[in-house]
Description:
Elements: H1 3-21, H2 31-88, H3 95-98, H4 107-121, H5 125-130, H6 137-151
Amino acid sequence: MNDTFRRNLEMGMRVRDFKASHPDRFPAGSRSAELIDALNPLLEQLETLAAAQASGITNAREATTAKANARAKLKKSLKAIQLTAEGLKVKRPGVESIFRLPNKVTDQSLLASARAVAKDALPLQSEFITLKMPASFIADLNADIDHFETKA
């Protein structure tokens, strides 16, 4: 709602309230009483729409925050796997390159990388676990992927 719309709505509400508090100035059947009475349903509708708009803005902000949190959690999980893969390169040279994240991380590339990491880490799961990754790290990564997808 822009300022002009808000001010007009508030003015209409003041007019409605003025008629309610000064009924003697607006005799029944007068043109002014009819106009204000015709204004009442419009004001109610506008108040409902303004509330819906405010609610929609709040919901959009919450959704943006939830998506950002899901993205951060997924990146954190991938980073932990990437760092652990660095430790695996002693026994498996070149393994760290499998778990490298892309330089330009869009939502789609992040999801694609996360799915690839989950698939590629499966045969190496026991080795990751010996380097102190949780036993459920692949399941946790898949849960993070699913959570991020639902927020996208």
